[in-house]
Design goal:
- The protein is α/β, with parallel strands linked by helices.
- Among the domains are: 143 residues, Isoleucyl-tRNA Synthetase, Domain 1 (Orthogonal Bundle); 89 residues, Beta Barrel (OB fold (Dihydrolipoamide Acetyltransferase, E2P)), CATH 2.40.50.
- Helix content is 42%, strand content 18%.
- The strands form 7 sheets. A 6-stranded parallel β-sheet has the order 3-2-1-11-12-7, sandwiched between helices. The chain has a 5-stranded antiparallel β-sheet with strand order 18-17-16-19-22. Strands 5-4-6-8 form a 4-stranded antiparallel β-sheet.
- A hairpin with a 2-residue loop joins strand 20 and strand 21.
- 5'-O-[(L-methionyl)-sulphamoyl]adenosine (MSP) binds next to strand 1, helix 1, helix 7 and strand 11.
- The site of 5'-O-[(L-methionyl)-sulphamoyl]adenosine (MSP) has 20 residues, from strand 1, helix 1, helix 7 and strand 11.
Length: 651
């Protein structure tokens, strides 16, 4: 029999900064569902990826003097490393810069245009002339000025394409209010009242004021703007309108799109409208969660309140972090992050409840039966409650997975774990052990405990995939024993099971000491930054990892002379230079126009990274990079002695 398909997606993340614990929530939640569905026997497609186009990326790359693609490549690696560290079992990773995605988006854009849903109009917004950027009202700084350079902005217009939303308003309202598309459904009211009732506004879907986007095929001064590009990822990744994959028939419509509340509107209104316009089936569920907040604010780099999951993971283990964020976050609500709450939860649930249950049970089997239980057992009516709770657990967790209420699933699993701990107190095995005649009863008690552990940890393994196999090794369970099929049956482990003593799975954390250390870490970081600032008046970047001399010599650094230099009219941050590198002349583009006029550079000698692969910055070819020092927000070009011949290599 062929397996039933199940398709689940995270949002695609902006690679504009390092991922933080806020990004981890959706990805860890989707991963747990994907793992659970695989255990249930579904053929799962779990998709995640990165949303790589847009003005912000273009600007950040230009500031660093690299191409947008080079810029995103570096951050995408950081995302992928984090996902691998957190044991994220995605089946496919989409990058919106992938060729096949570009093709799909171009085809969709043209199809919507041909159907009359996309039309040409005028985009009006706040425009910063020096930065050549449009901003929305909410993006402006606290004084209503440009968020980049903090200068005045003016009202301006540019030609743009728009997507007509009004034809879909009624169907979308029904989707939100009459179906179970939106989870939790309570959010439908706010969407209908705020966006649908006042009349759905058409959506701006192309721009001409920046270049880093997917070109509109039939009007090449336009690039596709944000949402048509981003949302299409869910179908391009299956091969819709491209030759890369061939899974659209199998996996579409998606079973679950999971997103946080800030992008709910795009997934609840715009995405269904796009699919309706393309005459495609709608996804089955949109699960919306709140934010992980820190001191009451959404985590964000600009607020300086990001929590680095790798730092926490190294101290407490990836599974503990997974458990904590999943247990804390209720669907729809925000959850506030604090190191103290996290450590207390790891101690109480993982070290005390689960860890102790496993180590005590295994230790008692070793102590009283040399590690192997006897076949002869004697049951008692007092076993019933634990046995029944354990048997019912799989059904309860199944329902939570259907409803995306993962915090409840974990709470239910830990109810069985707590019940098992209580059962130890009730049955008092150490008292039974005193009398040889009670051995069959003692064997039954320990067997029931092992079974309760087997069932709860087999279900828990979808949420905490790396530590549960360690438990199974200790209780002597095979892969078959801990299968999903066996999770609703009590009495699966062999009657004469042998256990194995192992390491403590979740060591208890000394809360006061740990909080002190974490605080010291934060203070040390702040002091280091402050000391660097006092010393040089700048914030120094931390030193990079050690490399070998061979790595250094991969970069070919040469002395070159600036022969000519000019501004680039369409890119205010860039200068175009012709330099002589000793072998001849070459063109280099550098993002230093904010600090240098062309005449400051002509005739000067600089250091050139001479073996960088050619790249285009805002459409202008660059063959190398000029070395400059980052001084706070500024860049200072390194000028060298005029007597050093062009082409001399730095070594
Ligand atoms: N690129 C768009 C999504 C396009 S999907 C077709 C985007 N990217 S994002 O990187 O800014 O955010 C991705 C997701 O991470 C969003 O759902 C966002 O809300 C979520 N989170 C970012 N910070 C978060 C928290 N602090 N807490 C929970 N989720 C958070 O939006």
């Amino acid at each position: 029999m062929s397996k039933k398909p199940f398709y689940i997606t995270t949002p695609i993340y902006y690679p504009s900064g390092n991922p933080h614990i806020g990004h981890c929530y959706t990805t860890v939640a989707c991963d747990s569902i994907a793992r659970y569905r695989r255990m249930q026997g579904y053929d799962v497609m779990f998709l995640t990826g990165t949303d790589e186009h847009g003005q912000k990326i273009e600007q950040k790359a230009a500031e660093k003097g690299v191409t947008p693609k080079q810029y995103v490549d570096e951050i995408v690696e950081i995302f992928k490393n984090l996902w691998s560290y957190m044991n994220i079992s995605y089946d496919r990773y989409i990058r919106t810069t992938d060729d096949y995605h570009v093709k799909t988006v171009q085809t969709i854009f043209k199809a919507l245009y041909d159907k009359g849903y996309i039309y040409k109009g005028e985009y009006k917004g706040k425009y910063c002339t020096p930065c050549e950027s449009f901003w929305t009202e909410s993006q402006l700084d606290e004084n209503g000025k440009c968020p980049e350079c903090h200068r005045d902005v003016v009202e301006a217009k540019e030609e743009a394409y728009f997507f007509k939303m009004s034809p879909f308003a009624d169907r979308i309202e029904k989707l939100l209010t009459e179906t179970d598309y939106l989870q939790p459904k309570t959010r439908a009211v706010e969407l209908v009242n705020n966006f649908i009732k006042p009349g759905l506004e058409d959506l701006c879907v192309s721009r001409t004021s920046f270049k880093w986007g997917i070109p509109v095929t039939f009007d090449d001064k336009h690039v596709v703007y944000v949402w048509i590009d981003a949302l299409s990822n869910y179908i391009s990744a299956l091969g819709y309108e491209n030759e890369q994959y061939n899974d659209f028939e199998k996996f579409w419509p998606a079973d679950v799109h999971m997103v946080a509340k800030d992008i709910m509107r795009f997934h609840a209104i715009i995405w269904p409208a796009m699919l309706m316009a393309l005459e495609l089936p709608l996804p089955k569920h949109l699960a919306v969660h709140g934010w992980i907040t820190f001191n009451g604010q959404k985590m964000s780099k600009s607020l300086g309140n990001v929590v680095d999951p790798l730092v926490l993971g190294e101290r407490y283990g990836a599974d503990s972090i997974r458990y904590h964020i999943l247990r804390e976050m209720a669907l729809g609500a925000d959850s506030s992050f604090s190191n103290e709450i996290m450590i207390n939860r790891i101690n109480s649930d993982l070290a005390n409840d689960l860890g102790n249950l496993v180590s005590r049970t295994v230790a008692m089997v070793i102590k009283y039966f040399d590690g192997t239980l006897p076949i002869e057992k004697q049951s008692d009516p007092m076993d019933e409650e634990l046995v029944n709770m354990a048997k019912a657990l799989r059904g309860i967790v199944d329902e939570c997975i259907d409803n995306t209420t993962l915090n409840i699933a974990l709470a239910e699993i830990f109810k069985v774990i707590s019940r098992a701990n209580k059962y130890i107190d009730e049955t008092a095995p150490w008292v039974l052990a005193k009398d040889e005649a009670n051995k069959p009863r003692l064997a039954a008690v320990l067997y029931n405990l092992l079974e309760a552990i087997r069932i709860s940890t087999s279900l828990l393994s979808a949420f905490m995939p790396s530590t549960m196999p360690k438990v199974w090794e200790q209780i002597g369970a095979t892969a078959d024993d801990v299968s999903y099929e066996n999770a609703a049956t009590f009495g699966v482990l062999p009657q004469d099971i042998t256990v194995h003593k192992g390491d403590i799975i979740f060591p208890r954390i000394d809360v006061d000491k740990e909080i002190e250390e974490l605080n010291a870490l934060i203070t040390a970081q702040a002091e280091k930054a402050k000391a660097a600032e006092d010393k040089d008046g700048v914030n120094l970047e931390p030193l990079a990892d050690i490399i070998g001399i061979d790595d250094f010599f991969k970069a070919d650094l040469r002395i070159a002379e600036v022969k000519s230099c000019e501004k680039i009219p369409k890119a205010k941050k860039l200068l175009k230079l012709i330099v002589n590198d000793g072998f001849g002349e070459r063109q280099v583009v550098s993002g230093i126009a904010k600090w240098y006029a062309p005449e400051d550079l002509i005739g000067k000698k600089i250091i050139l990274v001479a073996n960088l692969s050619p790249a285009k910055l805002c459409g202008v070819e660059s063959n190398g990079m000029i070395v400059a020092a980052s001084v706070g927000e500024d860049a200072k070009v390194i000028f060298v002695d005029k007597d050093i011949p062009n082409g001399s290599r730095l070594s």
